[in-house]
Design goal:
heterodimer; A: 353 residues; mainly alpha; globular; disordered C terminus; B: 285 residues; alpha/beta; 11 helices; 39% helix
Chain lengths: 353, 285
Amino acid sequence: MKMKKKTLSNLITYAIVILAFVLCQWLIASGRMTRSLKGQMVPICVYVVMAVSLNLVVGISGELSLGHAGFMSVGAFAGVIASAWMAGAFAMENELLRLLLAMVVGGVVAGVAGVLIGIPVLRLRGDYLAIVTLAFGEIIRNVLNCLYFSLEGSRLHVSFNNPNLPGTILVNGPNGAKDVAKIATFPVGFALILFTLFVVLNLINSRSGRAIMASRDNRIAAEAMGINVTKYKMMAFVTSAVLAGMAGALYGLNFSTITAAKFKFDTSILVLVFVVLGGIGNIRGSIIAAALLTVLPELLRAFNDYRMLIYAIVLILVMLATNNPTIRGLFTRLVPQKHSGTEIVEAKGGAEE
Amino acid sequence: MSESIKRRSATKMVPAPSHGIIPERDLLSTPVLEARHLGIEFGGLKAVEDFNLIIGKTEIAGLIGPNGAGKTTVFNLLTKVYQPTMGTIMVNGRDTAGMNTVQANKLGIARTFQNIRLFDNMTVEDNVRIGLHNQIRYGMFTGILRMPGYWKQERQQHLKALELLSLFDMQDVANVRAGSLPYGAQRRLEIVRALATNPSLLLLDEPAAGMNPHETEELMNNIIKIRDQFQIAILLIEHDMNLVMGICEGICVLNYGKIIAKGTAEEVQNNPVVIEAYLGKKKEG
């Protein structure tokens, strides 16, 4: 009974994503989509993946992470460099293969960063953890600002704070990467969303996922039940970093230039806003919120300057609304199957059986 | 594994009947719990001092004492939430020095909490499944890729969870959110969850708190049933004297962090020191 309900809910999430993809493809094919909106398709996919992966940390494992853009930037630069290297060193012409491999590289490098950052960060709790992840996000950005990469034949050169490298410059410190081969495509972005959903939803509904949620709900009880809380927090943190790195690689390969300045604290907060608006712990909500809020500024170009202002206001309104008993009661009546009222009905139903 | 533990400790263990509450059922077998000279100081304050207790297999022991006597602190020491500053704790003949809560649980100590600590946002069944966590072994990738091991072990875990829940007739509420259960049911769920970790010693912290006399009666029968069915030792903290005197084979009375009396229900009840601790001293003259 319960398994079925969860499976059904997951299938609806997959169905929404697939339908949205088909709809967008149809709009593009029939020429009904504007050029600027078409250009937003890959960023939408990227932000959806970012939101879902951050929700794994914030919603499922219950730790507020404010440095998610850091992992995205690590993935972006790793992906861009990997793509250029594969093209330069192996003359790899197949763009799809190069994109996929670049995403894998981005994911792995961000995952390593996730482990390195997770070790000190996950020793902390609550506000302190949030502050330290914020700091690490900024540290990553500042380190990337000082890194120089160049390609000489098939050899990759790296230096710190020294722009005089032989060969063609790939990443030029604070100026970032220029003339990136734009190989990211919307279908690959869609595939990445499906992959992310597959990983996150399957993880949640498994032994490890339950342990992650138990550690969130009550750390002391989880430890008393023999659950290694740090291990499972780490698992969620690193999985999230890997997915963010893959999204970052896709993002990096979607633009001709990419600089570390694009992955500022604002980006982390933007993704957090998607998660909060979509509902903490609600994967489907994250997808919808990320997609809508990435499209909206594009549709409301005139108001683009006020975007962050509007976000702040919307965020405050949502927080007020979710804590307001009257409004919550209204939602309970509107959507009865989603709220705690049902559980009592369920309990009664169960007892009668 | 357990054989070697038994043999090793059988040669090493010196029978010390004075530390046990009741004469050992079987002096040759290793006690489930053996605490010696256990103590903890919080910045000079001795919360528990020179605590000695031996609990044999399938014993039901009670830990009583006035409020603030250090009963829950003893539980926290036994489960390694606090590291003792003095003394040793042996579980099934193995020293727990340097272990953490997780390792203590794997050695066979499970507990419930005075202020209920369930995983409120998870279902009743998932709460029990957390208890079964370490008995089911498949990794993260098996879970994500949904390999055959996942389906097989999830199925086993599901059946095991329902079987455990049926102990307290709770299998019908398996899909209910744990936080929405009534108070008494939450207490019972905590016991089931602790049992699911397959312990050899179950620590119950005020299991009858907030229950009416009828529910307490039922709980007493259930505790005995659990002991008989799972062959485990139980140590419980309780203020309900009917329960303590009714089912505990040995009772240990704690006051100001020190053991002031040990023995059977009758011995403890008639002990003047215990009466004084609970009711105060009779005025002279």
